[in-house]
């Protein structure tokens, strides 16, 4: 792929800052870039290292103490960075997070390490990918995973602060020999020297999350064009994207981690199956795959077992695959709960043994839970407007036992199913 026409910025940017240099020149001494660069000095690094275990609840006392021996602006920057590192542990792990640098948007929008590593592995498995142009790189989470997989990376972001943070992260993790960071508009980048392209458009604006793919920065249509112009490409998108918005030449993959759907990725080019759908479940790494939309699954009565498909399976439209695997059926044609008469276990589902089924009735449920001495109640719902916390409050639970209640519809009727988690196949 050659140079592409400039269409849109690739992330939040202050028009007053330069956006066409690889490194900052003379940043505003009172601005966030200057504050970050101060943290990269020996004094800043020493100050930040001493804040690894600091308690944010004691910030005022900590700041007062540190300002006796350090400039106020440096203390403020270090405390802010320490808070961000603590937040980043959930995504990056403590070993990396306490060596890396972050911005507030960077922590929020960065790819979780496990997901980024999965994506890097797919590039490697596709064969022939030795270099990747990472467009809209943010603070460098994906670039880091690609470099750790042995891939040379050009990481591009328009915002000078974000680009400098990405550069610092590559150095902090010893990957600066594989990662080149460039501060530029992604639409000005010639990606033809690279084996693959990865695009992660900004999906948040000044008013929060952006739901219209053409309002991404850059727009989805531009990102798809950039992907189609490369031998191989991956395009990160919001998991809620409607299937009809997915290009025919893309393989669509939804990824969950720890039971929570994290993202969707469109894969293009050699090594990927155009028009197919995939659900990947981490940390297991198992994948369901379908060459196209599967047929509608059967619907039938509630059996002894209930299976809750992983969110990635539901987003990918592969619930019918789970139905076939467990030889079951849906409890309602509009509800993604699968039921069966035989025990079944897989990475793609959570299983429950159903002990009771009744029409929706709060009083009867309260009486049943009191009779069973249920003190801990897990509430799950699909197709119900009842809020779990409100239901638990009204039950006035007491007792040593636990139970799970599903608020849902069965054959169109509001229904309560009571059960317990399965330990596994009999």
How would you describe what is shown here?
With 426 residues, the chain is of the alpha/beta class. Helix content is 30%, strand content 26%. It contains 14 helices and 18 strands. The protein has helices at residues 32-39, 42-49, 59-66, 72-92, 94-97, 104-109, 113-126, 141-148, 160-172, 220-228, 311-315, 319-325, 362-371, 388-395, and strands at 131-135, 152-157, 179-183, 196-199, 204-205, 208-209, 232-237, 251-257, 260-269, 277-282, 286-290, 305-309, 329-332, 335-340, 349-359, 374-381, 401-410, 413-421. It has a nine-stranded mixed sheet with strand order 3-2-1-4-7-9-8-10-11, with helices on both faces. The protein has a seven-stranded mixed sheet with strand order 13-14-12-15-18-17-16. A two-stranded antiparallel ribbon has the order 5-6. Helix 14 links the parallel strand 16 (374-381) and strand 17. Helix 1 packs across helix 4 and helix 7 (113-126) packs across helix 8. The model is unreliable at 1-24 (pLDDT under 50).
């Amino acid at each position: 792929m050659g140079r592409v026409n400039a269409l849109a910025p690739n992330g939040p940017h202050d028009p007053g800052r330069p956006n066409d240099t690889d490194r900052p020149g003379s940043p505003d001494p009172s601005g966030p870039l200057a504050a970050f660069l101060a943290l990269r000095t020996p004094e800043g690094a020493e100050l930040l290292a001493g804040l690894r275990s600091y308690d944010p609840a004691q910030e005022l006392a900590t700041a007062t103490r540190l300002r006796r021996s350090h400039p106020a602006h440096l203390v403020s920057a270090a405390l802010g960075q320490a808070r961000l590192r603590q937040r980043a542990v959930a995504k990056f792990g403590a070993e990396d997070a306490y060596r890396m640098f972050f911005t507030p948007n960077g922590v929020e929008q960065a790819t979780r390490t496990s997901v980024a590593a999965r994506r890097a592995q797919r590039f490697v498995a596709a064969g022939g990918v030795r270099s990747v142009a990472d467009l809209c790189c943010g603070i460098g989470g994906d670039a880091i995973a690609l470099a750790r997989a042995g891939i040379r990376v050009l990481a591009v972001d328009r915002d000078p602060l974000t680009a400098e943070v990405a550069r610092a992260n590559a150095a902090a993790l010893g990957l600066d020999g594989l990662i080149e960071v460039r501060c530029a508009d992604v639409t000005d980048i010639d990606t033809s020297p690279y084996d693959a392209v990865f695009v992660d458009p900004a999906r948040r604006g000044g008013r929060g999350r952006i739901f219209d793919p053409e309002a991404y920065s850059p727009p989805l249509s531009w990102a798809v064009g950039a992907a189609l112009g490369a031998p191989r490409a991956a395009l990160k998108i919001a998991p809620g994207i409607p299937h009809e918005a997915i290009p025919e030449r893309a393989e669509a993959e939804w990824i969950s981690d720890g039971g929570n759907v994290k993202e969707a990725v469109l894969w293009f080019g050699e090594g990927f199956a155009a028009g197919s759908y995939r659900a990947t479940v981490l940390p297991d790494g198992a994948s369901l795959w379908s060459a196209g939309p599967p047929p509608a699954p059967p619907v039938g009565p509630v059996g002894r077992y209930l299976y809750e498909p992983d969110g990635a399976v539901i987003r990918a439209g592969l619930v019918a695959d789970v139905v076939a695997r467990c030889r079951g059926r849906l409890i309602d044609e509009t509800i993604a709960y699968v039921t069966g008469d035989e025990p079944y276990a897989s990475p793609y589902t959570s299983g429950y043994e159903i002990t009771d089924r009744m029409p929706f009735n709060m009083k009867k449920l309260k009486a049943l839970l009191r009779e069973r001495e249920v003190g801990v109640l897990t509430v799950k719902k699909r197709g119900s407007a009842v809020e779990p916390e409100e239901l638990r409050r009204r039950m006035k639970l007491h007792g040593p036992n636990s139970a799970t209640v599903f608020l849902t519809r069965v054959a169109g009727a509001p229904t309560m199913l009571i059960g317990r988690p399965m330990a596994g196949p009999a």
